[in-house]
Amino acid sequence: QVQLVQSGAEVKKPGSSVKISCKASGGAFRSFAFSWVRQAPGQGLEWMGGIIPVFDSPNYAQKFQGRVAITADASTGTVYMELSSLRSEDTAVYYCATDGEDWGQGTLVTVSS
Amino acid sequence: QSVLTQPPSASGTPGQRVIISCSGNSSNIGTNYVYWYQHLPRTAPKLLMFRNNERRPGVPDRFSGSKSGTSASLAISGLRSEDEADYYCAVWIDSLTGPWMFGGGTKVTVL
Fold first, then answer.
1. How far is CA B53 from the centre of its chain?
2. Chain B residue closest in CA terms to A35
3. What is the pLDDT of residue B2?
4. Which candidate in A61, A112, B7, B72 could, as Cys together with B34 as Cys, close a disulfide (CB 3.0–4.6 Å)?
């Protein structure tokens, strides 16, 4: 089982960017399929994108194309998700997950002026 | 609006059996494995079932999954108070880098 530890809560202004980290331990980092999933208040789970570090070619949900960037740093075993041009509707808990099995604890991002 | 359709709620008394449905089409459920997740408030989602009907190690055998055509279901037998949570079906399309589709979620209440 992989342990995923995410960075802490963020408060951002509309129009700014946020970058969340997800550090993995206990497995073969480069071969995992990492995904980012978010849950807005009162809403369901929503997939944003994914990456397999050994291929280093991220795949993004159409809804977030142009606004999201997912990267992986094998030297530290960390995956990042950066979301730009933030708006209030991006207020959500953001999760990283591996192979659909193990999940990080979640990172609350609040977008407010 | 989710591509995979789940009922918004389901309920039962302790010991009862509850079934949650997940409806899709030939391009998602019809040709891919279905996964089921349990999500408790303020916690990370937990994988219960993978590849339609395989239970993740450590998941009680009260949980079972099935798939037929373009629909899938999760059954919870011997309902317990700790089963009160949101349940999501999910499908990976094409590869593990996605896209990853989720149902809208079903809130299970133990009466």
1. 10
2. B97
3. 79
4. B72
